[in-house]
Design a protein that fits this description.
Layout: H1 2-116
Length: about 120
């Protein structure tokens, strides 16, 4: 009977040893998983930080683009106004040049008439 008790005791001790080894292995794997989770959380945090930085940069670029677009539209509007004014001044200059030319013709014709004596008293 003592032999049976020692055999049973040996079997229980083997089972306890195996359970203890399994517990230690599970604890080791749990530690590894916790380290991996911590590492992944750090990576997720970095990714979120990078994402926010990229979104902020994107927003800044969008605002710069919109400002540039407004400046371009204003410049084109001013250009249009300048071209219209330039055209108007060109037309005015041409009109005045024609008037000057007519006046010169009249003055030249009056000089010719004076020299010939057609217009008395001048």
């Amino acid at each position: 009977m003592e032999k049976e008790i020692r055999d049973v005791e040996a079997k229980w001790m083997e089972k306890v040893r195996k359970a203890s080894e399994e517990r230690d292995e599970i604890a080791r794997k749990l530690d590894e998983f916790e380290e991996k989770i911590d590492s992944m959380q750090i990576q997720v945090h970095r990714s979120e930080t990078y994402k926010m930085e990229i979104e902020e940069a994107n927003q800044r670029l969008r605002l710069q683009y919109e400002a540039l677009q407004r400046d371009y539209e204003e410049t084109m509007q001013e250009r249009s106004i300048v071209l219209e004014e330039n055209s108007r001044q060109t037309e005015e200059r041409e009109r005045l040049q024609k008037e000057i030319d007519k006046m010169k013709e009249v003055a030249d014709s009056d000089d010719i008439m004076l020299n010939v004596g057609i217009i008395p008293g001048f």
